[in-house]
UniProtKB/TrEMBL annotation:
UniProt keyword list: Disulfide bond, Extracellular matrix, Glycoprotein, Leucine-rich repeat, Repeat, Secreted, Signal
Organism classification: Eukaryota, Metazoa, Chordata, Craniata, Vertebrata
GO cellular component, one term: plasma membrane
Annotated LRRNT domain residues: 15-49, 362-396
Stated name of the protein: Chondroadherin-like protein
Subcellular location: Secreted, Extracellular space, Extracellular matrix
Assembly mode: Associates with collagen and binds to collagen fibrils.
Length: 729
C-alpha cells in the first residue's frame, strides 16, 4: 500500500505545474506568492483545495476553472485581480469557499459569480467595489457569509442582495455607505447579523432595516449619526444593537419601542449628555454609556429612576457637575442629582418639535432632497454657482461634478446640522475666507480632484468639528502652512497625488490631533526635522511614491503612536544604522518595497522587534538583509523579487525563514547554480559551517545526511515519495 501511494504521488507530481506544490494525498495545490499571470491549466483535475495567493492575474477569464470541477476551496487573495469576467467561475458547482480579498475589483457584474450554486462563504474584503449590479448574487443560493468590508460602496440599491435566501451574516463595514434603498435588504429572510459600522450613515436607515425580521445583531458604530428618532428601529428579533463611536446627541424616548427583543444597547463614545426613559424597550438588560459627557443633574433623574425600575444595568460615569464627576451611574442617589443653575442638556429633555415651515422643506431647483435621510444632491447638474436654500436639517450634501470654480464666503447658509460635504471634481481654484462659515457640525469635507494650489486658514473659520479633509488630486506644490490652526479636531488629512516638493517646519502647525496623514504620489524630496512635530498623535504616515533618497529618521522623532509607515516606491538605495529607532517602540507595519534598495546596514532595524506585524521588502536589489530573529510577532513578510546571494553569509536568513510559519517568497539571485531556487531549498548552504546546527548549538548529522540525499535526488531528477510533489515554496 505504501509503495502504491508513493507511485501515485510521483505520477501525479508530473502534472503539478511549476512553481506550485501539490499534496496529492489531500488533493491540495498551493501556488503561493509567485509570478503567475494566468490560471495554470495543468492543475490536477481531482484537486479540492487550490491556493493561488500572491500572484498577478489581473483578470479572471470566463471558464478559468473548468479543468478543476471538484474544487471546494479557492483562495485568490492579493492576486491584483481587477475584473471578473462573466462566467469566470462557471463549472465550480462544488465550491463552498471563495476568497477574493485584497484585490482591485471595482464592479461586480450580473454573471460574475455564475455557477457557484454550493458556495457558502464569499470574501470580497479590501477591493475597490463601488457598484454591485442587480442580480450579481442571484446564483448564490447556498451562501451563508458575504464579506464586503473595506470597499468603496456609497449606495445600496433595492433588492441588491436578491437570491441570498440562506445568508446569515452580511459584512459591510469600512465602506462609504450613506444611502440605503428602502428595499436593499428585502431579500434576506435568514439574515441574523448585519455589520454596517465604519460607514457614512448620517441617519439610522430604519425603513431598510425593518425588512430584517430575523436579524439579532446590528453593528452601526462609527457612523456620523446624530439623532435616533421616534420608533426609528423596527426589528422584531433584534437583541444586540451597537451605536458606539457615532455623533449621537439625542435619542427619542420610544426610539426602540418596535424592537421588543432588544437586550444590549451599546452607546459608548457619543455626545450624549443624558437619555430619557426608553419606553417600550421592556427586554433591555444593559445600556453602555461609557465615554459620553453625561450631565448628572435633576434632568437625568427620570432615566436613572427608569434604570432601577426596569432593572437595566447601565455602564457610564458623570462628566458634570464637578461634584459628581467620575461617579458611576449605578452609585448615584436621586437627591445628589440637582439642577441649580445648570443649563438643561438637549438630550435630557423631550426632543422639541422641529419647525416645518414651507421653506424648511424646500429644495433648490434641479436638486434632490431626501427628508428621510436628510440628504441633498445636485451631482453633475452643470451648476456654475453653489445652490442655496437646502432644508435646515440637511446632513449630507453632494455637489460633485459641477464647475463652480470658487467657493465664496458664506456659501452654505442655514446648514448648522450638515455633517458631510462633497465638492469633488468641481474645478475649484479658490476656497475663500469664510467659505464654510456656519457649518458648525461639519465632520467630512471632500475636495478631491480640483485645482486648489493654496488654502487660507480663514477658509475653515466656523467649521471647528471638521475631522476628515480630503485634498487628493489638486495642484498643491507645498502643504499650505498654518491652514490647520482652526481645525483642532482634524483626524485624517489626504494630500495624495499633488505636486508637493517638501514638508517644511510649520506646515502642519495646529494639527495636534492628526492621526492619519496621506502624502503618497507627490514629489517630496525632503522632510524637515520638525515638520511632523505638531502631530504627536500620528498613527499612519503614508509617503509612498515620492522622491525621498533616505529614510527621514530625524523627522520621525516625537511620534510615539506611529504604527504604520509607508516608504514604498521612493528611490532609497542605502539604509543606514538605526533608521527606525525613533518609532521602534510603536511601529507595527513597515513598507519598504519597490525602492531599488541595494544595501541595508546590519543595524538598520535596531530597536524593532516583536511589535512588527508586517514587513514588505519585495522588489528590491539587495543581496542580504539584517538579522530579524527577534521579529517574533510577524504575520506578513514579503521578500519576493529580491536577488539574494545564497552563500554562507545568508545561512542565518535561510535558517530563520525555515523556522517561520510564513510564506516569504525569497529566491536566490546568485550564485548561478542556485539562481531561481527558493532560499529555503537551495543546496548551496550544505557545505557552510554551522549547517544543520540545532538550537543547542550541536550539529545534527542526520539532518545533513538527509539533506545530501535530497540534493542527489534533485540532481537525478527524482522526487521524494511523499504526498507533496515539491517542497513548500
Amino acid at each position: 500500500l505504501l509503495l502504491l501511494t508513493a507511485a501515485l504521488g510521483v505520477t501525479a507530481a508530473a502534472r503539478c505545474p511549476a512553481p506550485c506544490v501539490c499534496d496529492n494525498l489531500r488533493a491540495h495545490v498551493l501556488c503561493l506568492n509567485g509570478s503567475l499571470t494566468a490560471i495554470p491549466d495543468t492543475i490536477p483535475e481531482l484537486t479540492k483545495k487550490l491556493d493561488l495567493r500572491g500572484n498577478s492575474f489581473m483578470v479572471i477569464p470566463a471558464g478559468a476553472f473548468l479543468a478543476t470541477p471538484y474544487l471546494t476551496h479557492l483562495d485568490l487573495q492579493r492576486c491584483k485581480v481587477e475584473r471578473l469576467e462573466e462566467g469566470a467561475f462557471r463549472g465550480l458547482g462544488r465550491l463552498v469557499y471563495l476568497n477574493l480579498a485584497s484585490n482591485g475589483i471595482a464592479l461586480l457584474y450580473q454573471e460574475s459569480l455564475d455557477g457557484l450554486s454550493s458556495l457558502q462563504q464569499l470574501i470580497l474584503e479590501g477591493n475597490r467595489i463601488e457598484e454591485i449590479q442587480p442580480g450579481a448574487f442571484g446564483h448564490l443560493g447556498s451562501l451563508t457569509v458575504l464579506d464586503l468590508r473595506a470597499n468603496a460602496l456609497v449606495y445600496l440599491p433595492d433588492m441588491v442582495f436578491q437570491g441570498l435566501q440562506v445568508l446569515r451574516w452580511l459584512r459591510l463595514s469600512h465602506n462609504a455607505l450613506h444611502v440605503l434603498g428602502s428595499e436593499a435588504f428585502a431579500a434576506l429572510p435568514a439574515l441574523r447579523r448585519l455589520s454596517l459600522d465604519h460607514n457614512e450613515l448620517q441617519a439610522l436607515p430604519g425603513e431598510a432595516l425593518a425588512r430584517l425580521d430575523g436579524a439579532t445583531r446590528l453593528d452601526l458604530g462609527h457612523n456620523p449619526i446624530t439623532y435616533v428618532a421616534e420608533e426609528a428601529l423596527a426589528m422584531a428579533s433584534l437583541r444586540h444593537l451597537f451605536l458606539d463611536h457615532a455623533f449621537l446627541q439625542d435619542v427619542a424616548p420610544d426610539a426602540f419601542a418596535r424592537s421588543p427583543q432588544l437586550r444590549v444597547l451599546d452607546l459608548r463614545e457619543n455626545q450624549l449628555q443624558g437619555l430619557p426613559p426608553l419606553a417600550g424597550a421592556g427586554g433591555l438588560a444593559r445600556v453602555s454609556l461609557d465615554g459620553n459627557p453625561l450631565l448628572c443633574s435633576c434632568l437625568l433623574r427620570p432615566f436613572h429612576k427608569w434604570l432601577a425600575r426596569a432593572r437595566v444595568q447601565a455602564e457610564g460615569a458623570c462628566a458634570a457637575p464637578p461634584a459628581l464627576r467620575g461617579r458611576s451611574l449605578d452609585s448615584l442617589r436621586p437627591p445628589e442629582m440637582r439642577c441649580g443653575r445648570l443649563r438643561p442638556p438637549p438630550s435630557a429633555t423631550t426632543q422639541p418639535e422641529q419647525p416645518r415651515a414651507a421653506g424648511n422643506r424646500q429644495c433648490p431647483r434641479g436638486c434632490v432632497c431626501s427628508p428621510d435621510f436628510h440628504h441633498g444632491s445636485c451631482k453633475n447638474r452643470d451648476l456654475r454657482e453653489i445652490p442655496q436654500n437646502f432644508p435646515g436639517d440637511t446632513r449630507l450634501l453632494d455637489l460633485r461634478q459641477n464647475p463652480f470654480r470658487t467657493v465664496p464666503p458664506d456659501a452654505f447658509p442655514g446648514l448648522k446640522e450638515l455633517v458631510s460635504l462633497h465638492l469633488q471634481s468641481c474645478s475649484i481654484r479658490v476656497l475663500h475666507p469664510g467659505a464654510l462659515r456656519g457649518l458648525e457640525s461639519l465632520v467630512y469635507l471632500y475636495l478631491t480632484d480640483n485645482h486648489l494650489s493654496t488654502l487660507a486658514a480663514a477658509a475653515f473659520e466656523g467649521a471647528p468639528q471638521l475631522a476628515y479633509l480630503d485634498l487628493d488630486h489638486n495642484a498643491f506644490t507645498r502643504v499650505p502652512a498654518g491652514t490647520f490652526r482652526l481645525l483642532p479636531n482634524l483626524i485624517s488629512l489626504h494630500l495624495q497625488h499633488n505636486a508637493i516638493g517638501e514638508l517644511a517646519e510649520g506646515d502642519l502647525a495646529g494639527a495636534r490631533g492628526l492621526r492619519w496623514l496621506y502624502l503618497a504620489g507627490n514629489a517630496i524630496r525632503h522632510i524637515a526635522r520638525a515638520a511632523l512635530a505638531p502631530t504627536k498623535m500620528l498613527e499612519k504616515l503614508q509617503l509612498e511614491g515620492n522622491h525621498l533618497s533616505e529614510v527621514p529618521t530625524a523627522a520621525l522623532r516625537g511620534l510615539p503612536a506611529l504604527s504604520e509607515l509607508k516608504l514604498s516606491r521612493n528611490p532609497i538605495k542605502h539604509m543606514g544604522d538605526s533608521v527606525f529607532l525613533p518609532v521602534a517602540s510603536s511601529l507595527q507595519h513597515l513598507y519598504l518595497d519597490n525602492m531599488g534598495l541595494e544595501r541595508i546596514s546590519p543595524h538598520a532595524f535596531t530597536g524593532l522587534g516583536p511589535k512588527i506585524r508586517s514587513l514588505y521588502l519585495e522588489s528590491n536589489k539587495m543581496s542580504n538583509i539584517p538579522d530579524m530573529s527577534n521579529f517574533t510577532g510577524l504575520e506578513i513578510l514579503n521578500l519576493q523579487d529580491v536577488p539574494f546571494h545564497c552563500d554562507c553569509q545568508l545561512l542565518p536568513l535561510h535558517s530563520w525563514i525555515n523556522k517561520l510559519n510564513l510564506r516569504v517568497g525569497a529566491t536566490c539571485g546568485s550564485p548561478a547554480e542556485a539562481r531561481g531556487l527558493k532560499v529555503k531549498l537551495s543546496t548551496t548552504f550544505l557545505t557552510c559551517p554551522g549547517w544543520g546546527r540545532g538550537e543547542a548549538g550541536e550539529t545534527n548529522p542526520n539532518k545533513t545526511k538527509s539533506a545530501s540525499k535530497l540534493s542527489k535526488k534533485k540532481r537525478s531528477g527524482k522526487s521524494p515519495a511523499r504526498g507533496f510533489s515539491k517542497s513548500r515554496s
